[in-house]
């Protein structure tokens, strides 16, 4: 049974708000179009491309307009871009797309693509892949992540690494260095908790997809990349100690109060992040996207470092995971498919334009960018994070981000049920047994782990 709770919620929402939805470009949320930030070009017949994305600060939204949307509209008189950044974008999309509406272009997580393909809501972009020769420009693993049964249903938007952000000032106060081993990590957490700090900030209220960050850290640094590959190719099971032990350790740290004092289910990710920004928490669970695109340069007023999560088990190296931050997909009901594909290609095609945008706070896409193209006045926080991104992804131990590599139904089960372990509704053994049932079904259906 595929995520019935989520589908039930969606149907209830459809019944209650169907009357307020318009197909492909309806107006809602934080819109930046027309006189706001968009130049409409010549008078006469006008076309609007609606784009839905997750939450971005205003100055980060401006980067999209300055480097991509406004130049595109200048080259296409009469075209407007309606860019809406929504805190609940995934739930909004599920409801609107299920009702036959929704925006033209929107962000998706890789693990959601199969369900949307099955529902017939995504446009097959394979012809555009050939037209624009994306296979020569975009990393093949990025395109593979959005491919279902040989057809392309999205273009990867960003490459990123899972990581650990550390408040170096607080570590110094605690008399600790950045931890690389489990013993060092425990020492920091114990001292931080004793002195009234939150060792690890973490919140997922209303957005179970954020659960992926925490189990990526523990699985990747307890089981290790080789055992994760064995798990998803059928050589290991969730109930084997190599895998189950990661969740047992996570539960232990939760019970110790180290993970946001056991309150993660009651606070949002944005609320949890403020604990790190306000120097109440030592560690932040977010990845390199935090200081590349989510918050503005200079937002962190203390000395910080973005690095790998520490080893959780002797013999398993400290590491981060490679992932795709989001996929740009196109609504199957759009009336301007060619224009949507052209806009997506516009984000990728000009290396200098992309380098300038990254320097201003745009995410690193799944393509090569010559570092010599970055402007000399790039913000220190962005340059620092790009260096960290390169260091993490450059390690031969780099792992697999769940949202990009794990089998879809198994990953959805994990993110929707892990909190049952936190709060005692499931034992770790029960959680792993149920996860294995979902994985067995996906393996039997032909899932192939690409990694």
From TrEMBL:
InterPro entries membership: Bact_solute-bd_prot1, SBP
PROSITE patterns: PROKAR_LIPOPROTEIN
Pfam family membership, one: SBP_bac_1
Family matches, as PANTHER family: ARABINOSE-BINDING PROTEIN-RELATED
Name of the protein: Carbohydrate ABC transporter substrate-binding protein (CUT1 family)
Organism per entry: Faecalicatena orotica
Lineage of producing organism: Bacteria, Bacillati, Bacillota, Clostridia, Lachnospirales
